[in-house]
Fold this sequence. Notes:
Layout lengths: L12 H8 L6 E4 L6 H9 L5 E6 L2 H11 L5 E5 L5 H4 L7 E7 L4 H5 L25 H5 L4 H12 L4 H12 L7 H10 L11 H11 L2 H13 L2 E11 L2 H14 L14 E3 L5 E2 L2 H6 L7 E7 L2
Amino acid sequence: MNFTNHLHVPVLSGEFENLLNVRPGGVYIDATFGRGGHSKIVLSKLSSTGRLLVFDRDVCAISCAKNLANNDSRIEIFHSEFSEIPSILPTSRKKIDGIFFDLGVSSPQLESSSRGFSFKCDGPLDMRMNQEKGRTAEDWINSAPEKEIADVLWRFGEERFSRKIAKKIVYYRKDKAIKTTGVLADIIRSSIKGSYKIDPATRSFQAIRMLINEELLELESILASVLCMLKKGGRLLVISFHSIEDRLVKHQFRDLSKVDTSLSGEGLPDYRLLTKKPIRATREEIQANRRSRSARLRGLECLV
């Protein structure tokens, strides 16, 4: 599959554009470039003096970004986890007009069997966003203790059958290593009785992917640290697709927008919530793009 030409439809595009409120000559950071859907929206609003700094740890995403940058000098590319943004851009304090995150897995990643993200197509159990380093899902699923597997499926996937699934995984691998997404998905499905609206493997695959890529750790470490990079009036936007990620963003944004009264007992907050509740896709968008059905957009504005 040619990922650079793959059609990618950014979710909540209109809502994203309105909330980011792009300044034509501003400097923006796309922390999760993916296939550049939201970056293209920003570029369409930037003048020739504006700049867009794009980050991604996926080699295919970086290749796509380079193709876009070949014809646009406003783009600067960084092949890196977004948690490294403050160290890569150490002099950017109070210089950035907007930072945005589109969390999760892109459609091309899901549709490529070689990446191992999807249970819908059989392939190797990889699941790494950056395939150049780190352990694979196969490494972990064949070596982790039963309790650890159950804990991960519960914590990151909120899978209520986590213990049954973990027990079945450990039982199966005694005789044969689990090497493909198809085998793992079948093990998970055989552990859960009854019929469900979503594939029984959905939550477990989500949980394993989040563990392998340390997604929550990355997110926890970055939100507060990038805010010091924003100018007054600069905005931080996050699009998440899972309730566990959205709760983390919600709580951090809420805490950051509160007034610190520990010293003077009075004052104004440093940040303002742009979204008291997450912005969700309309029925029309969901019909046109199923990926948008679980998308949640939240925003925060810097006031100082």
